[in-house]
Amino acid sequence: MTPAAPTVRTTCPYCGVGCGVRAEARDGALIAVSGDPDHPANRGRLCVKGSALADTVGRDGRLLAPTVRGREVSWATALDAVAEGFAGTLREHGPESVAMYLSGQLLTEDYYVANKLMKGFVGSANVDTNSRLCMASAVVAHQRAFGEDVVPCDYDDLERCELAVLVGSNAAWAHPVLFQRLTARRERGELKIVVVDPRRTATCEAADLHLALRPGSDVALFNGLLAHLARAGAVDREFVHRCTTGFDAALAAARDDAAGLLRETGLTRQAVATFFRWFAATPRTVTLFSQGVNQAGNGTDKANAIINCHLATGRIGRAGTGPFSLTGQPNAMGGREVGGMASQLAAHGDFSPASRERVGRFWKAPAMARAPGLKAVALFEAVARGEVKAIWIMGTNPVVSLPRADAVRDALRRCPLVVVSDCVALTDTTACADVLLPAAGWGEKDGTVTNSERRISRQRPFAAAPGLARPDWWIVSQVARRLGFEEAFAYTGAPQIFREHAALTAFENGGARHLDLGGLADLTDAQYDAMGPVQWPCPADGSAGRGERPFADGRFYHADARARLVAVRHRPPRQRPGAGHPFVLNTGRLRDQWHTMTRTGTAPRLFGHTESPVVQLAAEDAARLGVDAGDLVEIGNGGGRVMALAEPGGEVTPGHLFMPMHWCEPFTGNGRVGVLVAPATDPESGQPESKHAAVTVRPQAVGAWLRLASRRPLPAALLMAPVSYWTRLPTRSGWRYEVALQAAADVDDYLAGLCAAQPHDNRIEYSDSSEAGRRLLLERQGAIEMVAFCAPGRGALPAASFAADVLDGALEQAPWRLLAGPESLDADCSRLVCTCFGVSEERILQAIAAGASSAEDLGRRLECGTNCGSCVPELKALIAREESSTERAVRHAV
Ligand SMILES: Nc1nc2c(c(=O)[nH]1)N[C@H]1C(S)=C(S)[C@@H](COP(=O)(O)OP(=O)(O)OC[C@H]3O[C@@H](n4cnc5c(=O)[nH]c(N)nc54)[C@H](O)[C@@H]3O)O[C@H]1N2
Ligand SMILES: Nc1nc2c(c(=O)[nH]1)N[C@H]1C(S)=C(S)[C@@H](COP(=O)(O)OP(=O)(O)OC[C@H]3O[C@@H](n4cnc5c(=O)[nH]c(N)nc54)[C@H](O)[C@@H]3O)O[C@H]1N2
Ligand code: SF4
Ligand SMILES: [Mo]
User: Fold this and answer.
1) Is residue 645 within 8 Å of residue 612, measured between CB atoms?
2) CB within 8 Å of 616: residues ≥ 6 apart
3) Which ligand is nearest to the CA of 609?
4) Cβ of 581 below 6 Å from ligand 3
5) At what angle do helices 299-312 and 247-258 cross, to 10 degrees?
6) Ligand 4 being an ion, which residues bring their Cβ within 5 A of it?
7) How many whole angstroms from 544 Cα to the centroid of ligand 3?
8) pLDDT averaged over the chain?
9) Which of 277, 443, 561, 714 is most buried, by the most CB atoms less than 10 A from its CB?
10) pLDDT grade, residue 166 (50/70/90)?
11) Least-confidence region, from 521-530, 634-643, 818-827
12) Whose CA is nearest to atom 19 of ligand 1?
C-alpha cells in the first residue's frame, strides 16, 4: 500500500473569500485538494475553481528560466540587467521615469518588499497595482467615510444578518463559497436576498428581489434609500449625532436625487418600494458590494452612497450589519496593508509629512517618495508618452486587463525597459518583455494573504519551484541589493519580512490606525510556519487572532473619531452610447475561469461550462441585427475590435451587452474586451469604468466553420486571414480549435494547410455536396494526430468537445465512424453544467423529464451540485425553465 500523501494546509490562490485548502502532494505533485474544515472562511467547502486546483498546477507552459531580450540567461545576468537598467534610467531621468505595476495576487511579503524598494529607496511612488482596477473605489470610500481603509464586516455577519443586499456582485460565480453560506440560510428561511445588478446573473436565482437598475445608477438608488430611511423614521439619531458628521448635507443631496429616482434607475415604483421597506425594517442588514460598484466613473460615490445608508441607521460595528466590500483577488487586502497602491504608503500610511517621516524612519529610508505616484491608467499613459522609461510588471497581465489594452501593448513595445515577473511563459504581457523573470507560483511559495474579512492566512509550499523559478520577494531583494541597498533587503525568508511588516503596522500606532499586527511582530519562524488564520487588528497587548470588531465602540479614524456621511449626487457614466456607438458593453466574470486564464485555462474541464467568447445581447437587439445564437459578431469602437459569438437572451436589457473579461491571445484571436474600455476613470479613486463601454455591433459573414482537435498546436499562419475568428483550448492530449473562414472557397487551401502542418501517414477524408462540407482525420503510426469537421454553418458541426474526445481516444470507434459524427454514436455533446462530476445539460434535462424536481433531487440522481455547489443556481434555473415550458405546453393543450 502506498503511504498516505502528506497534507499541507494552505490557502486557495483565487478569490478574496480566502478558503483554507488541504493539499495532498506526493513527490512535489499535487494529487488532491479538499476544503479545510477548520478554516473559518470556508469550513471545508471549495468552489469549482478551488476544487480543480490539482488540474492547474502542472509544469506545462511555465516560465522556467530568466531571459533577456529572448535569450535564456543566468539569474545573475538577468538581475544585473534589471538593476543596471533601472539605475541608468534613474540617473538620467530621475525617480519619475521608473515604475512598478504589481498585483493583488502577490503574497504580502512579496508586495511589502517591492513597495519598500520603490517608495523608500528608489524614491518613486510610481508603484501601482491591478487593485486599482478592482478595489480602489472601495478603498477611497472607506478612507472618506471611516478615516482609514477598514472593511467593517466579518463573514460571521453573513450568518447573522436577516437581509443581504448584493450590489454589483455576481457572488454565485465570483465569491461562490460566501454565496453558498448566504443561500443555505435563505433556504432555512433565515434571511432575504436582494440583488442590484442590471444583468440577470446566476446570483439572481437565489434573490427574493432583483433590481435590474440602469447601469451606473446606483447612487440614485441609494440616495433614494437614504431619503426614504429619513422619511420612514429609520435613522438612528443617537448614533448619527454621537458618531458621525455630514448627515444633513448627505441627506439634502439624497433628497435632491430622490425626485429622479425612477427615471434614472429605470426601476418600477413597486420594486423600489419593496427594497426600501425591507431595508428600513431590517436592522440586521449587510450590503455586499463588488465590481458593479467599484468599476465605475463614480465608483467611490456609489460606495459612499451605500455606506451612508449604514451610517444613518447605525448599522455598522454590530453583529449582522455593515457595508461589506468583497475583495476580488486572494491578496487584494494584503496589498492594501502594505500600501501597494500609488496613493498609499505602507501600513495604511499616506503621503502626509508625519506619515512619510514615520515610515521613512522605520525603514531607515534614504529616499522617501514625496507625493502619490501615477495610478494605473495614468501610469501606462505616461509609459506611452515616453515619460516612464523603465517598468517592472509583477503578477498581472495589463495587456489584457487594462482599459485601451491595444494602446497598453503599443506603449510597452515602445518602452525602453520592460521587466515582467510571471509564472507563465506566454501571456499577452510577457510577449512585450525585454527581461522575463520566472516566479515561483502557488504551492511553491511561502507567505501570507489577507481575505475580504481581514483574515490573514498562510500559503504554504508543497512542491519545489520548477526550473529556475524563485519567489517574488527574493527576486526584488536581489535587485535591491544590486542597487546598493544590501542591508535593508538582506532578507532570508518570508517570516522575516512578515515580522517587519507587522512591526511597521504597530510602529508608533497607539490606536491611531486600526491596522495593527503588533501581536504578530515577534513570531518565531516556527510560529509563523504554524500560524493559523488570524484576523486583524491583533495588537501586541491583545491576544492575537481575536480581532476586535471594527467600529464596535462607535469610534472611527478621522481626527475627530467620527465617521463621515459623504454628500454624493447621481452622475451618468463617463462612457455613453451615442450615434456611432449605440450599445453599452458590460464586462465581468465567468464561473469557471480566473482572469486572463493563465491558470484555469490549462484545465480542459474548466472549459466545459463556457468554451467560446460569447457576447450576451437582448433577443430584440439580436433580431434587429439579424443575428442568431452562435453567429459571429464584431464589437468595436475607437479602441479596437473584438470578435465574439452572439448569445441572445433575457440576461441583459435592450441596448446592453455583456462579455467576459477573460479571453486573450493565447486562447482566441481578438478576444480582449479591454481594448474597448475607454481610459475613463473615477476622479477620486482613479479606477477605470470597466463596466460601461460604448460600442457598435456588426454581424460578420462566415463562409465556413471548422472544429478540429490536434495533437500539436496549429502554426500561426493557420490563424491569420482568411481566418476571421478562432479559439484554441487545451484537451487532455492536445488542442482543440474552432475556426471561422471568410469564404467557402477558402476551405480547400485551409485543409491542405492543416495536412501540411501535421505529420501523418494516413489520411481519411469525407466530403458532402456543399462546398464546405468536409471531414478529415490524420493518423500517424496508428494514432490519431488530428480530426477536423468543416461545414458552411456552425450549427451543422459536431460539438468541439466531440473533436476533443476523438483526439483523446475517449470513444473507442473506427476512424470512419468517428468521422460520421456524434449522432451516429449517440454521443452527448451538450454543455457541462457540473464541472466537478462532468454532468452535462442533456443528462440533467433527461433527469428533469424523468421527474427530478429540485437541485437536491438532481444531486441524488446524478451527483451534480454535490461537491462544490457552484452549479446549483444553474440546476435550479434549468428546473424552473423546464417547469415553465411544461406549464406553457399544458396551458396550450388545455
Ligand atoms: N470565477 C471567478 N471568480 C472571481 C474572479 C474570476 O476571474 N473568476 N475574479 C475575482 C476578482 S479579482 C474580483 S474583483 C471579483 C469580482 O466579482 P464581481 O464584482 O461579483 O464580478 P463581475 O462579474 O466583475 O461584476 C459583478 C456584476 O456587476 C454588474 N454591474 C455592471 N454594471 C453595474 C452597475 O452599474 N451597477 C450594478 N449594481 N451592477 C453592475 C455586472 O452585471 C456583474 O454581474 O471576482 C473574484 N472572483
Ligand atoms: N474589462 C474588464 N477589465 C478588467 C476587469 C473587468 O471586470 N472588466 N476586472 C479588473 C480586475 S477586478 C482585476 S483584479 C484585473 C485582473 O487582471 P490581471 O491581474 O491582469 O489578470 P491575471 O490573469 O490574474 O494576471 C495575473 C498574472 O500573474 C501571474 N502570476 C500568478 N501568480 C503569480 C506569482 O506568484 N508571481 C508572479 N510574478 N506572477 C504570478 C499569472 O500567470 C498572470 O499572468 O482585471 C481587471 N480588468
Ligand atoms: S470561493 Fe473558490 S476561488 Fe474563492 S477562495 Fe474559495 S475555493 Fe478559492
Ligand atoms: Mo479584481
Assistant:
1) yes
2) 199, 647, 648, 649, 651, 652, 657, 658, 659
3) 1
4) no
5) 110
6) 134, 328
7) 25
8) 94
9) 443
10) very high
11) 818-827
12) 291
* Residue with CA closest to ligand 1 atom 26: 169
Reported as half-sphere exposure (CB side, CA atoms, 13 A), residue 200 has a value of 13
Cis ω before 537 (30° cut-off from 0): yes
**Ligand 1 touching residue 330 (CB < 6 A):** no
Half-sphere exposure of 872 (CA within 13 A, CB side): 25
Helix (H, G, I), strand (E, B) or coil at 15: coil
Show Cβ contacts of residue 131 under 8 Å, excluding neighbours closer than 6 positions.
103, 104, 139, 329, 332, 335, 336, 340, 341
Query: Which residue type is seen at 578?
Result: G
User: Which atom of ligand 3 has the smallest separation from the CA of 176?
Assistant: 1
- For the CA of 330, the closest atom of ligand 3 is 5
Neighbours of 406 (CB within 10 A): 15
Q: Running DSSP on this structure, what letter comes out for residue 122? A: I
Nearest residue to 845 (alpha-carbon basis) of 858, 856, 834, 835 = 858
CA of 250 to the centre of ligand 4 (A): 29
pTM: 0.95
609 alpha carbon to ligand 2 midpoint, in Å? 21
Closest atom of ligand 3 relative to the 870 alpha carbon: 2
Q: Please answer whether residues 406 and 373 qualify as being in contact, where contact means their C-beta atoms are separated by less than 8 angstroms.
A: no
Q: Is 604 helix (H, G, I), strand (E, B) or coil?
A: helix
For 164, the 3-state DSSP assignment is strand
CA distances from 146 to 150, 162, 219, 304 (A): 7, 24, 19, 10
Residue 870 CB–ligand 1 contact under 6 Å: no
pLDDT tens-digit readout, 408-462: 999 999 999 999 999 999 999 999 999 999 999 999 999 999 999 999 999 999 9
pLDDT at 141 > cutoff 50? yes
600-609, 654-663, 819-828 — most confident range: 654-663
Q: Give the mean model confidence (pLDDT) for residues 358-386.
A: 98
Residue 499 Cα to ligand 4 middle (Å): 27
754-762: Cβ within 8 A, 24+ apart: 754/708, 754/710, 754/714, 754/718, 754/778, 754/786, 754/788, 757/714, 757/715, 757/718, 758/710, 758/711, 758/712, 758/785, 758/786, 759/785, 760/785, 760/786
Q: Is 215 in the pocket of ligand 1 (CB under 6 A)?
A: yes
pLDDT of 788-812, one tens digit each?
999 999 988 888 888 888 888 877 7
Return the minimum-mean-pLDDT range out of 411-415, 676-680, 824-828: 824-828
β pairing state of 20-26 and 29-35: antiparallel
Instruction: Please indicate whether residue 636, judged by its CB atom, sits closer than 6 Å to ligand 3.
Output: no
3-state secondary structure 702-763: CCEEEEEEECCCCCHHHHCCCEEEEEEEECCCCEEEEEEECCHHHHHHHHHHHHHHCCCCEE
Cα(46) to ligand 3 centroid in Å equals: 6
CB 359 within 8 A of CB 365: yes
pLDDT surpassing 70 at residue 543 = no
pLDDT band at 544 (very low <50, low <70, confident <90, very high): very low
Locate 358 and state its grid cell: 514615520
The rounded Å distance from CA 541 to ligand 4 centre is 34
Rounded Cα–Cα distance for residues 111 and 339 (Å)? 9
What's the pLDDT at 315? 98
Q: Does the beta carbon of 594 sit less than 6 angstroms from any atom of ligand 1?
A: yes
Q: Looking at the CA of 18, which ligand is closest?
A: 3
Q: What are phi and psi of 325, to 5 degrees?
A: -75, 120
Q: Is residue 427 within 6 Å of ligand 2 at its C-beta?
A: yes
DSSP element (H, E) containing 25 = strand 20-26
**Residue 511: how many CA atoms within 13 Å on its side-chain side?**
8
Would you say the CB of residue 422 lies under 6 angstroms from ligand 2?
yes
Ligand 1, atom 30, residue with closest C-alpha: 292
Order across the sheet with 20-26: list the strands. Answer: 7-11, 20-26, 29-35
Residue 547: what pLDDT? 58
